[in-house]
Write the structure tokens for this entry.
Amino acid sequence: MVVGSVVRGCQVVVIGAGPGGYVAAIRAAQLGKDVILVEKEERLGGVCLNVGCIPSKALIHAADLADELRGAKKMGLKVEGLYVDLPQMVRWKDGIVQRLTGGVKFLCEKSGIEVVHGHAEFVSDRKLAVATSDGRVDIDFETAIIATGSRPMGLDGFPHDGEKIIGSSEALSLQTVPDRLVVIGAGYIGLELGMVYAKLGAKVSIVEFLPELLPDLDPDVAKALARRLKQLKIDLHLEHRAERFEEGTPSVVIAQGPDAELRVETDVVMMSVGRVPNSDALALDKVGVTTDEKGFIQVDDRMRTSIPGIYAIGDVVGGVLLAHKAYQEAKVAAEVIAGEPAAFDNAAVPAVIYTDPEVAWSGLTEREAADQGYSVVTGTFPFSASGRAMSLDSTEGFVKAIADADSKRLLGVVAVGRGVSEFIGEATLALEMGAFLEDVALTIHPHPTMSEAFQEAVEAALGKAVHIVNK
Amino acid sequence: MAYVFTFPDVGEGIHEGQVVEWLVAEGDAVDEDQPLLKVETDKAVVELPSPKAGTVLKLYVAADATIHVGEPLVTIGEAGERVPDDVGPTDSDLPVPEPDGSTAAVAPPVEAAARRPLATPRTRARARKLGVNLQGLQGTGAGGRITDEDVERAARRGPSLEIAAEPARPRASAPAPPVGGGTVMGTEDGEVERIPLSHLRKVIAGAMRTSKQTSAHVTHVDEADVTDLVAHYKKSKPTIEERYGVKFSLLPMFIKALVAVLRQYPTFNATVDEEAGEFLLKRYYNIGIAVDTPEGLIVPVVRNADQKDMITLAREVGDLAERARSRRLDLSELRGGTCTITNIGPLGGVFATPIINQPELAILGLHAIKERPVVVDGEIAIRDMMYLSVSFDHRWVDGAEAARFMTDLVRLVSAPGLLMARL
């Protein structure tokens, strides 16, 4: 019990200043609400801005550049003595992070949002206690938005020490490139950072428990990625359960495969086996907010929890753990609180994996469409037939359009290839607008671009692609 | 030892019912308390649970059959056990109903429900704003796309203002045909479809005839300027819904206004014991709410409405209406009313002359709220206006009293401040 605790009041308190939290706070403030934003870290922006999406993309870009320069001889570019100055790369990345988190702080200030730094716990369904560096602050609120996000899951046998056994956060701030790196878990974080360190010179091995790479996606995606992993000399061990880490010279990761035990010598192990919701330290039991068996807070399409006046958004409510899903949920929650008829009723949540080549998708996969009872028609356009892809020296990958064979309504798009992240938004717009294949086929796409492949894939589904032979 | 389960006496003076559907088939294993069949009585559809565990050996009645208290329904015993032959009719005169699985083959595939309505984000947002459910709405745009105009048209069909807890269901025709559908036959004048009357339909018909034959119906109509009430409602609705998680409508305000006036005019909250020659003035206020269900009219009762706040009333009315539509009301929720409200406004019309719910003495009709030009302080103004009707039994209540009753009610709903003072 802290003597002399401070009491504040507000209409809306937002817990967590990641992509969900700060967007919810700003939108609520725009709608005239008096908002307090609580963040336990010193910097705003959450995982995404500080140790997630943004910093990883900076390193991925730098590593890609290095990799391209090494292979640029055939274009008439000879680069000798390319030296990877990792500390400088990390400083450059930190500068970006600083600029962005500073930007969020500025936006919050300009919106009149009060930011309180500290760990928050519910005291009742109308009161929050925040442990700040200056003591306890009690916040009386009318409505609360929980946006506390998620954190990496641990694995028995691999105690995190931040040096030899690290998570993705430390992997974004290493000072030297390890000679050998073992990545546990071939999800999108493991694949992205595994490729980064392979391109920066490490010998990378990936250990994955499942028998397939990205099993929820189109099988052609895994094939394309597996080819590239091989080119990068990354050893992919599927169907191997990582069991323990033996420290020594050298250290060894031991995993159990279907037939035999695998031992991989390594200098550093990066864990990326999944994420767990940050719902356990909020004292939710005091207010009765219900969670599922994994700890994700249960909400309806208006982001309302089981307790009136308490909302939750972003990773902590589950679904796909992506910043842009949190953005949308944040706006819905703030607008519902302001009495507007908002709801999360989106047709599709796009997703991107920044591997090389990139993977992007939106809407239903072929299998999901079939499971929903559609008779499915697909059309595929390979980048090996794209002039733009050739001129980028990036012909790996394809775009596949998935549609209802009866009505010819577009149901989903999956793409693998350089820069496909940039046009998956277009595909998502088509899905939101309820586009039919003809709508996309009759839309002029600029030439030469990678996005032309989307139009061609749709035309292939209609049996009238021009630049490939129709099946 | 095989056990013959007969149609039990479920109370409330119910002597007969109709089998809606069997939930088990011969040969099925059942647990104790597992629902065996659905039976429609004149009050509700009830599920009859199995009194014991065992195997279903024989069903004695088919779906749609009328059953009476004490008649055998099903025999439950050990698998392979002989069925006692001294009960019920023989196989030949009662077909055994098809097991449930027989309809699964022709049921629409699952995707019908899973598929998203074809509408753009803007149209979906508009539908949310106007309270229009896109599921099942027919789009007139390209490829069946639901347009903004479709949504607006659907919204206009619905109520301009919801008095009821839920928007009225748009309905193409009178009550949906009962299970089984009709038989089409040719006549000299053309084809005619014969549809068997549902049990509920017969009960409604009986109740309406009795009421018209019993009471001397008179309907008194007045109009109210509810601009202030509507403004007050619109202002508080988002906060109440957000804070209490309940769909809030104008109906709780009208229930409160009615109760306030009933206190003043006790003969409107009464029955008459003709034999004893006495009024029975009820010192409690159980308000019946007429609910339009796919099968027909059902009137669940909100008990002790005088003792409940509007949030509680909103929650109860929403719950009762929803369960009335799915026929999951308990019999006790359909009895004991002292006065009834029928809210026909959302379905259109100027006003109507509702029939009294016997043995009550009055029924309040809430009619459509519409913006109309009216004279306020010597100037023409646009106001939210509505007609209110009270149908009363002129044998026991005089017209002058009904006029005074209505004048006071109009005064209350016209001035929310006054209404609040009387809560």
Remarks:
- The interface with chain A takes residues 109-112, 114-116, 118-121, 124-125, 128-129, 142-145, 238-239, 242-245 of chain B (CB under 8 Å).
- The radius of gyration of chain B is 25 Å.
- Confidence is low (pLDDT under 50) at residues 86-113, 159-180 of chain B.
